[in-house]
Amino acid sequence: MEEHELIRQAIQGDKTALSQLLQQHYAFVYKYLLKITLNPPMAEDITQETMIRCIEKIKLYNGKSKFSSWLITIATHLMIDQGRRRKREKHWQEQEQQQSLRQMQWQAGHQHEAWPDVLNALAELPQESRIPVILKHYYSYTYEEIGQMLSIAEGTAKSRVHHALKQLRKELV
């Protein structure tokens, strides 16, 4: 059956026709998203969201563009929205982290405990650097173990610890 006929039937509520359309375009949308996100799990998630959105909005398809172009538009908008959400979430997490740090500092001072400057310096490190350096120097894990825990190469773990220590030395001088 030709695509325009499948589209017509899908708009009229034929679930089999809609299923065939989605199957025909799934790989196309996934490959597009993979190229623009460079992240297979994210591309897969957004492709699935695109297909769900298509199911929900098929009656809004007006035929002015190719069906594949309509799907790409949906996928692109979903990808941009997800990027905005992630940015807001990151900002929110950073604010939460700063608030928690201030709370911990206050509690330490209130309980007459020392608050080492190194904890302030650690807080300034990005999480991807802070975690490996803490695992290495507070918990004595090997670079191999750190790599396994964080799903990164051993060399990457070693590099992150090295650069984090370099930054910490600068801040603590």
Please tell me about this protein's structure.
It contains eight helices and no strands. With 173 residues, the chain is an all-alpha fold. The longest helix is centred in the middle third of the chain and has 44 residues, at 67-110. The relative contact order is 0.07.
SSE blueprint:
Elements lengths: L2 H9 L3 H23 L2 H18 L9 H44 L6 H8 L2 H11 L5 H8 L3 H19 L1
User: Care to count the β-strands?
Assistant: 0
Treating each run of at least 4 consecutive H or I residues as one helix, how many helices? Answer: 8
The ordered H/E elements are HHHHHHHH
The major β-sheet equals: none
End-to-end C-alpha gap: 73 Å
* Coarse shape: elongated
Q: Return the average pLDDT rounded to an integer.
A: 86
Question: What is the C-alpha radius of gyration, as a whole number of Å?
Answer: 25 Å
Give the low-pLDDT segments.
none
The helix-and-strand class reads mainly alpha
- The helicity comes to over 70%
Strand content: under 5%
Structure summarized in a few sentences:
Helix content is 81%, strand content 0%. The protein has 173 residues and is mostly helical. The longest helix has 44 residues, at 67-110.
Quick tags:
0% strand; 173 residues; elongated
